[in-house]
Design brief:
globular, 0% strand, mainly alpha, 64% helix
């Protein structure tokens, strides 16, 4: 059970309602995470703004979902693992093997694997990646703009992982548990 109240859309703060309506229009539902973050309209607006901007990045949806899975596994966020496994399967059309590999920051594709390894190093080393790790992601074909986008995707996912880990958000997707 969630340790922080998750209001219904109807009982959410007035300032959050238009933002939650936009989520419903985009996804068809309003996930518990959005309703929870809607306890603070400013936080919801900030999250949605960064998420929306990163959805326009040059990194494709499948890679963004893989990064979300790698970060959620590292942070032990069952809510995000559940949500991004669902989205990975049903939106990004990732195979079960690719989802499992992403959780271990790996991929059968070398370029994708380089991005996931870099994302893992960013989260595990709190941004203090080595010159060699930065060189490796560049050598795999990622531009400086894409490197920045990977870092911001990591940060966005850390944000949701921490919110969910603090709140123990009720999972409203098929449940997936972190390995350790």
């Amino acid at each position: 059970m969630s340790r922080i109240a998750i209001p219904s859309v109807e009982t959410s703060l007035e300032a959050s309602k238009p933002l939650l309506a936009a989520v419903k229009q985009q996804l068809g539902v309003v996930p518990n995470l959005m309703k929870l973050v809607g306890n603070s309209p400013a936080a919801l607006e900030g999250y949605m703004s960064l998420n929306g901007a990163l959805n326009k990045s040059s990194l494709n949806g499948a890679l963004r979902e893989r990064i979300a899975l790698a970060v959620a596994e590292y942070n032990g966020c069952d809510y995000c693992l559940s949500a991004h496994t669902y989205l990975g399967q049903n939106v990004a059309k990732l195979s079960s093997d690719e989802i499992a590999a992403a959780r271990d920051h790996q991929s059968s594709d070398a370029k994708t694997s380089a991005a996931l390894n870099f994302a893992y190093r960013v989260v595990a080393d709190r941004g203090r990646v080595s010159d060699q790790e930065l060189a490796a992601v560049r050598a795999a074909g990622f531009s400086d703009a894409e490197v920045i986008e990977i870092v911001l995707l990591v940060a966005l996912n850390v944000l949701t992982n921490y919110v969910n880990n603090v709140a123990h958000t009720d999972i409203d997707f098929p449940v997936v548990k972190a390995k350790g």
